[in-house]
Amino acid sequence: MELDFFFLLPVIPVLSSALFKYYTEGPPKKSWDLKFHLAIALIRTNYRFMKLPVEQLQKAADKLIIKVPSNITVKDVILDEEYRRKSITHLEKNLKQYEDVLDEKWKESNDGGLRGEWAHVNEADNVVVLYLHGGAFRAGTSKNARIFSFKFAELANSRVFAPNLRFSPQNQFPAALCDSIAAYLYLINPGPEAGFDPINPKKIVLSGDSSGGNLVFALLLFLRDAGLPLPAGSVILSPWTDLTHSMPSIWSAELNKIDFLPSKLGFYDIGAPSPASEEYFITAKALADKIALKKPTIVSHPSFTEVPRFHLYCANEALAIPYVSPMLAESLGNLLPILCQVGADERLRDESILISYKAANPREYQLPSYATKNFEKSPFKNPT
C-alpha cells in the first residue's frame, strides 16, 4: 500500500498504542491476531479525515493505493459517455415516481468520463467480476478496492472490472447507481472502442463491499425491475442496505470497541467549508424547498421528517426508495444466486442478515411498506 507522509505521521502513535494494548490487555476479540488488531486501529484513524474539506477527504482516500503484484495485469480505461446516457435513459423511466425527492443535478457529470480499472491474471475467457467499491458513497476508488478485486482475479481466474463511482455530496443519488448501470451496460453491450466482444450476462458476477454492496443490491433490483438481463449471481461483502439505520446492530454499544464504524445517525459530516460544501448547502436547500412544495408521499413515513437531513447521499424523504435502502424493497425475489457475507461483530450485521432472509424467502419476510407497492402487488415473489 502506497502512503504519503501526511497519512503516516498521525498513524504512528495510534499503532504504538494499539500494539501496547494488544500485549497488555489483549485484543477486543480473542480471534484477532496482531495484524488484524493493528489493521482495525489503522482504519479507525481514517475518521480524522472527516474534519477536512470534503474534496481533501476524497483525495486522501485516493492515496490508499494497493500496489499491483507481479502476477496481476492492470489496465485503466475511460468509458464513452454513451454508457452513462443509456443508463440515464433507463433511470429516468424507472425513477419517475421518485423525482420529487431527488436532486435534479444527478444527471450532470464533469469528471471527464467514467473511469475504471481492469485486472486479471491471464486473458482466459472466464467469469467477469464487476466490482463496486465501498466508501460510504463519498470516497473510494477502484484502486482502494484492489484488496478484493485482485483476490477475485487470482482465486477465480477471472477478469475484474472496477469503476470509479461518483461521490456525494457533489453527486447525490442516483449518480453512483447510474455509474454502476453504465459499467454493466459497458460489459454486456460494449461499443467498438471497448476492444472486446459483448460479455454474456450469465458469465458476469457482481460484487462489492459496504456502500458498494448496497449498490450491488440496488443494481440487481434495478436490472430486474427494468427488464434488463440479470448477471449469473453476486458475492456481497458487509453490505450497507438500510440507510434509515433501523436495525439494532447499528446502534450496539457492545460493538464500539470492535467495529470501526461509528454508532451514529447517518454520515452527514461535511467537513470544513469548501466549494463543494457550499454548493451542497445550496442544492440541499433547493431540494428541501421542492419537497416542501410538492409534498410527496410516495416513499414517506412520519419519522423521516422528525430529524434534519442526515445523509449527504440523499434527502430523508428518499431513504425508503428500494434503490437507496434495498433492505426496504417490497420484494427481493426473482434475483439470481446471492452470497452475502458479514461478520458477527459488525454494525451492518443485522441488515445484512435480514436482507438475505428477505431474498431467500420473500413471502415470509415482509417489512412495512414505505415504498410505492406492497408485496402482494409485486410481480417478483419467487425466492432468490
UniProtKB/TrEMBL annotation:
It comes from the Eukaryota. Residues 1-18 form the signal peptide. Pfam families: Abhydrolase_3. Residues 129-250 form the Alpha/beta hydrolase fold-3 domain. The keyword Hydrolase applies. The active site is at S210. Keywords: Hydrolase, Signal. The keyword Acetylation does not apply. Belongs to the 'GDXG' lipolytic enzyme family. PANTHER family: AB HYDROLASE SUPERFAMILY PROTEIN C4A8.06C (PTHR48081). This is Alpha/beta-hydrolase.
